[in-house]
Amino acid sequence: QPGLAADLASKGQLASLPEGTSDWMKENYAAGQSWVDLGTYPGPEGNEELFTFFYKVDVKSLVWYVPEAFEEAGYEVPESMEALKELTQQIVDDGGTPWCIGLGSGAATGWPATDWVEDMMLRTSSPETYDKWVSNEIPFDDPAVVAAIEEYGFFARNDEFVNGGAASVANTDFRDSPGGLFTFPPECYMHRQASFIPTFFPEGTEMGTDADFFYFPSYEGKDLGKPVLGAGTTWGITKDSKAAQALIEYLKTPIAHESWMALSGFLTPHKGVNTELYSSETSKQLGDVLLNATTFRFDASDLMPGEIGAGAFWTGMVDYTSGSEADAVASDIQTRWDAIN
């Protein structure tokens, strides 16, 4: 939670990181400036400094599919958002259903749609606009945000595009939603979800053979590079000492990353690591998504106040998916935000 780290820094409960760490990160992490920005907060005197160091990252900008199903249907992995939309329509024209989407998650129902919207924000607006949205410098019902919500709606609110029809999306548990990839014939061909989702694939699924993924692509015509949405673990110093500073220096070394890469469950944007040391080809490919990123942004809902990011945003996306208009939903979320300011 970078927001929590920022709170600690503002209260003087974090020590700034060793001098030169910002420059090191810009040089050695893919999309380095993004990582510097995520770890830079105002201190107790109001001066911005680098307080935290990201080490271990999760990737969300992924689309999962079954290679055999793609091959049998003659489909190719799309490399742009334009091509992804064309493929979506092509699958329908061929008599299939392109997407499996589910928002159900108990008390947290709706969160998968927030990830969709965040990814679409990064593919339709600049990173700076994304940051202003997160901090509410632009309102939730800004045209850029409403447009991103409607981009999600292009996929999720079309009965022909979604397994079970649009009405099923809000009620389908996110853990069950990728199951349609593995039926015969396929109930769907694609599922957008983070790197953890294979946990919910059928037992015995072999990654790279029975299932694989591709990068959720950006618009070729919008010149926004290759943004990646994700989350991760950030390290800070709560009690300054030579040993604590030395630990941060150690985390800069390739071996600090490679030793965990070899064990699984670890991804890094460090450009100096030997990616052949990842424990699996899937992990290596996930790492490549990070290394090819031109921009990295943290999950927006995790950065917003809890009442918004883990409340109004979730429920608002359920309302939108169920038929409410995007501008009305966005306006309601902003009204909630205004009420807590």
* Strand residues, percent: 5-15%
Total beta strands: 8
Shape: globular
The major pleated sheet works out as: 3 strands, mixed
N-to-C series of helices and strands: HHHEEEEHHHHHEEEHHHEHHH
CATH class of the largest domain: Alpha Beta
Taking pLDDT < 50 over at least 5 consecutive residues as the criterion, the unreliable ranges are none
**Strand order, largest beta sheet:** 3-7-8
Helix amount: 40-55%
* CATH fold name of the largest domain: D-Maltodextrin-Binding Protein, domain 2
Number of helices: 14
Q: What's the name of the CATH homologous superfamily of the largest domain?
A: Periplasmic binding protein-like II
Q: Supply the CATH architecture of the largest domain.
A: 3-Layer(aba) Sandwich
Query: Number of domains in the coordinates?
Result: 2
What is the terminal-to-terminal distance?
Answer: 20 Å
Structural class: alpha+beta
Written overview of the protein:
The protein is of the alpha+beta class and 341 residues long. Helix content is 43%, strand content 11%. The protein has 2 domains: 2-59 and 227-299, D-Maltodextrin-Binding Protein, domain 2; 62-224 and 301-340, D-Maltodextrin-Binding Protein, domain 2 (3-Layer(aba) Sandwich), CATH 3.40.190. The protein has helices at 2-10, 21-28, 32-39, 67-73, 81-93, 111-124, 127-134, 143-156, 242-251, 254-261, 281-291, 300-303, 306-321, 326-340; strands spanning 40-42, 48-50, 52-59, 62-65, 191-192, 212-215, 227-236, 295-298. The chain starts with a helix and ends with a helix. The relative contact order is 0.19.
